[in-house]
């Protein structure tokens, strides 16, 4: 008898306080009084962690340049800026608490043993988002780049030719707040996103703080699309909606899309909404929405192939239908990108600007690491420094491999061997993992669709581990530690010691691992 059969035949009164197993798709039973108490503990533990991160952001967050930082000089809020190590400690302590709370919450949101409703889970996630949504940005200064590039557009310059420093001047508050490497580079973002940015700049004017919060409102609205789309897509793929939503809104989302305000939230929300609408109502509308997302970040076009494969499979399959619907979604999606490019007045300069992110050597990128290693070996062998040439070779090879993987995945969807949303997730994973640059939040392009479509517990467990570990890798400052490298180990050590206090306070009061998993049995659903 398989693990799944044993789980489904288990009696409702599982020994101890462990929840009974819930068949996928069934309405989860209401939590017991003991489970409700444990759920309250997790909710408060995570909210406390989020509040600590918000307080720490006042001193170690990605605030504007010191000369333009409105917090400096204020009586209470400015105090944290004079205690950067203490602020960093609080931020790290909050990060650890929030990751732990999310993992504990997963014990009540894992497939086949869900004990929450979508409304309960959404309420908890919103509570954890709220403090980060009002605090200064953490983990990244990219929002100042968004504001500066939108200001370049507002002043009539071509953002794909002129960098922020050239168009605005080095003394501009926005230019002074972004890393030096990005001050003179053209914008790497598509015309759709820059059009939204221009609207924000028109409202905020010279008010940097208002501009930051308007960008965050836009990111939160896009996350609302994610929260709406993921449960619906999960039902189509046979995945428990609550389990899908829990994995989709991971600490990576809270840290980098809510607090860090990365524009990946906008594109991801629009693409997922496009897939859901394309499957539910009209593939034409879905393709248009995906094209709108691609007008901000061009890798979103990958989703068009999987929408076409889904429609072709639903209508009988076959290579001819794939070509027909592939051509249809391509015309609509790429046509939307072209229409936005022309309608915005920004043109097609974004095509050349796609290479701008390659200026940064990302240690998470496999192809970049291989290129750097190849260049180092060449120098070691006395062949000279050919790192740039080797990088061009490895990066091109990586994109070629990613394209081949995407084609194979599309045919798997066409033949009914893979769900379209799962194929899209794996496709995005191949594109970003083999791409020249990989930031931690890029992993969400793969994790969120897979959360809504993959049932294999091993794959889901791997995704959980990736989200929990990678979320703790990026320092919350969003800047380097030149001349103050001592702060990082000091803050991490202090946070680890302080964490003993809240851990002791909740000992024995968090959700428990079900007896079926402690004994080695686990639901054995087929992979998609």
Order of helices and strands: HHHHHHHHHHHHHHHHHHHHHHHH
Secondary-structure class: mainly alpha
Q: What characterizes the major β-sheet?
A: none
Number of helices: 24
| Computed Rg | 24 Å
What would you call the quaternary organization?
A: single chain
Average residue-wise pLDDT: 82
Strand content: under 5%
Total strands: the figure is 0
- CA(first)-CA(last) distance: 21 Å
**Helix proportion:** 55-70%
Shape: globular
Protein name: Polyprenol phosphomannose-dependent alpha 1,6 mannosyltransferase MptB
Pfam family, one: MptA_B_family
Keywords: Glycosyltransferase, Membrane, Transferase, Transmembrane, Transmembrane helix
Organism: Actinomycetospora lemnae
